[in-house]
Amino acid sequence: MCHETIEEYIGHNPIPKLLGASYDSKLMPTAIIVKDPRINTKENDKYFTEHECREVLRQLTGFRGYKQMQILPYEFDEILFFNIRVVNVRYQKIGGHVAGIILDMECDSQFAWSNDFHYTFNASPSSSVILFNNSDNLYDYLLPKVTIKANSNISNLSIVNILDNNWTSTFKSISAGEIITMDSQHNTLTSSNIERIVSNDFNMHFIRLVPGKNEFVVNKDIQILFTYKVPRKVGFL
C-alpha cells in the first residue's frame, strides 16, 4: 500500500503536509488454482483438461469490470471483499500437463471493502440523526446511497450535516409516499414518480459522510435510509 507524502521545505527541513496526501497504487494480488490432491488421487485427475481451462477462463475473464472476492473468513474479521478483475492468466505445467492456473489480478483501489451497511432513521425537526462513519480512509468523504421518503406532502426540505461545515442538501418539494433515491457516488438522483424530473428541485449537494461522527439536522418529518460500504486497510497471511 504505497502512500504519497507531500512535503514543503522550511529552510533545509522537509515538513510533511497531510492535506492532499493520497494512496497512489492498486493492490495486485496473485492466486493459483490447483486441484485438491485429497480428492483427485489418480495421477491424471490432478491436471486440468482443455475444457476445464476454458471454463475457468470463461468464468474469470468473461465479465467486464470488477467482481467481489471475499478475502477473510468471518471468524477472523468482519466480512471483507476485494473488488478484483483478472488481468492475466498463466499456466504452470508439469510434464506438458496443466497442474496450476495462475491468476494475476488487479483491485479497484488500495483498500478492501466491507459488506453493505444499512441504517434507517425516522428523522424530524425535534431530533438530529447521528451516523458514525468508521472508514479506514481518514481523509476522504464516504459517498453513500440515500433513500428519502415522506408520508405527507412537504416543501423546502433541508438536510444539514452540521459536522461537515453545515453541508446542506435541499429539495423544493416531495410528494406524499414519493421515494427519492440519491446515489452520491455516481451523482444520480431518481424518483419513484417517473414523470418527475427531481433534479430540477435539488440543489445538487449530494449527501456525503465525513470520517467519524456525522450529525444531520432536518427541517421536516421524513424517513431516510443510508446504504454504503467502507474501505478497509487489510493485511493477511
Brief overview:
The chain is mainly β. The chain has one helix at 50-61; strands at residues 6-10, 13-17, 30-33, 67-72, 80-94, 97-107, 112-114, 117-123, 129-133, 145-149, 154-161, 167-174, 179-183, 188-191, 212-218, 222-228, 231-232.
Radius of gyration: 24 Å
Overall geometry comes to extended
Helix content: under 10%
Largest sheet: 6 strands, antiparallel
Q: Average pLDDT, to the nearest integer?
A: 88
Number of strands: 17
Structural class: mainly beta
Helix/strand order, N-terminal first: EEEHEEEEEEEEEEEEEE
* Span between termini: 15 Å
Number of helices: 1
* Percent of residues in beta strands: over 45%
- Which segments are poorly predicted (pLDDT under 50) over 5 or more consecutive residues? none
Provide a descriptive summary of the structure in words.
The chain has 237 residues and is mostly beta strands. The protein has one helix and 17 strands. The strands form four sheets. Strands 3, 4, 5, 6, 7 and 17 form a six-stranded antiparallel sheet that branches. Strands 8-16-10-13-14 form a five-stranded antiparallel sheet, with no helix packed on it. Strand 5 (80-94) and strand 6 form a beta hairpin. The chain is extended and about 75 Å long. The model has no long low-confidence stretch (mean pLDDT 88).
